[in-house]
Structures are given as C-alpha cells and as structure tokens.
Prior knowledge:
Helices cover about 80% and strands about 0% of the residues. By secondary structure, the chain is an all-alpha fold. The chain has one domain. It has a two-stranded antiparallel ribbon. It is globular and about 60 Å long.
Amino acid sequence: MNRPESHAGQWHSRWHRVKKPLTALFFLLLIVLFTLLAQRIDWNEVFDTLAAFKVRTLIIASTLTLLSFLTYACFDLIGRTYIRQRLSWRQVLPVGVISYAFNLNLSAWVGGVAMRYRLYSRLGVSKGNIARILGLSLATNWLGYMVVAGAIFSSGRVHMPPGWSLSSAALQGVGVLLLLVSAGYLAACRFSGRRAWVVRGVEISLPSLHMALLQLALGALNWSLMAAVIFTLLPGKLDYPLVLGVLLISAIAGVITHIPAGLGVLEAVFVALLQHQASRGGLIAGLIAYRAIYFLLPLLITVAMYLLIEARARALRIEKKPD
C-alpha cells in the first residue's frame, strides 16, 4: 500500500515541474495585458491630472497613509501581548512601520520576514516568538481582509465585467464564504477545546476571543484606510464602497502574481473594473499618486528610520567593547 507521504511527495514533484512554465505563461499574459492597456491610455490626460492635484488632497491622502501605517504597526502590539513579552510600544511600533513599508515595496520575504527577524532579534525576542508575531500579523491582515471583502462582495456593490471567468453572482458567493470563514475563526477562538499546536517546532496557539475581535477590527480598519487613500486620489464621482471592493480584488491578483508592490496589477484591475465609470487617464493618474504617497514616500522615510536604528545599535556595540 502506498503511504500518504509518497503521494504527497509525488504531487509536490509534479507541481514543482509545472510551476515554472505556468508562472512564465502568467507573466507573459500580464506583459501583453499591460502593453495593450498602455496603448489605450491618454497619457496627456494622466500628466494633466497629476499636475492638477490640490495640496489639500495630497495632505489628506498622506494623513490617511500615516494612519494606515500606524494601524498596521498595531498588529505587532497585539503580537507583543500574544507572546507575553515585555516590549514598550516605542520599540514595537517602529518595527511594524518599517516592516510594512519594506513588505509593500520589496515583497513579504524582505519586509514581513527578514526585516522583522533582524529588528526583533535586536530587542531580544527569540526566533520562535518572532515567528509567532509574524503569524499573528498575517492572520490579522487576512482576517480583516475576509471580513471587509465578505461584506463588500456579498452586498453586490462590485459588478464584474461581462466575459470574466468570475461572475458577479459568484463574487457574492465568495463574499458569503469569506464571512463564514471569519465567523468560524472567531468561534474557534471562543469555543475550541484545544488551544495550541506545534508546527515545525513553533507553538501556535489560538488567541482569546477578545484578541481575535481586536485583530478583526484593526485588520478591517487598515484595508479601509488603504481604500480611503485611493478614493481621495481618484475621480470624485466614484463611490467609496466600489473603490474598496476593487482594491480587495486587486490585492488577491497581486498575491497570485507575486510581483513586488503588485506593479501593474493594481492598475490593470482598477482600469478593467472602473473604466466605464471614470476615464482611464484619471484612474491611472490617481493610482500613480497613490503609489507615490502610499509606497514610495513611506519607503524613503523607513529606510532612514532603519539606518538610524542600525547606527544606534552599532554605537551601543562599540560602547560595550572592553578597552
């Protein structure tokens, strides 16, 4: 009789063989899509719209961006409570902010994983606890996503274009499913008899219902703030729930492609879903401004923050060296 491990190994081997060609094909299709999209954009309109942005609009978008980054950094404050380690909020918040900016621009492995490991290890946090903080942060982010996406998709506010493989009715079904999964997580945190598991040497335990509700609230707030930044910069006739729904769809597309910062994916999804309600040039201009304010500006600031932390750590090492 074949053991389950052998079947799993065979499946993994087959998937490894087809993964590269499928990924290459997907990227090729994206290049074709982006090329066709670029040819249909009125770039004069894009540049005119960018030049016409009011200072007040940019300040509002920047303020919302700051609130979003602070909200995401609070994910790690929940993680601090989760691992029961004494760290001040002044130590934790910079780690969350820096990790988020690097995560957005340079991939989850650089920002979410490597940066957290480096910064938290300097604070005396063990590798196991760093992994638990990272896991809780990921859970908070996607729990918030499921709740917000479930509410928006199931409401029918987002309509898929004709001819897409996922229909509007199917999207509503996805929304209901996401809400059920979110409710299941909360129910497990409240009623599950087993509270902990060990995965690859790392203990994973269910948080309390209070902590899970806090995860839900902060995760949902962060996605809502991200959409609010885009909504502020896009043409004024668009509804906020619709912008939020399109952002949520583009986020999944970005995860599937694994492109750092989701370059091109966000724009393609927004234009495809909103081109009948706003001009392509106006949409692209707003999304360019969004990338500058939400991605590039925080990256520049957090690079300076990270270098300052490294300089302080180096100074402390020099002071501790014996004469």
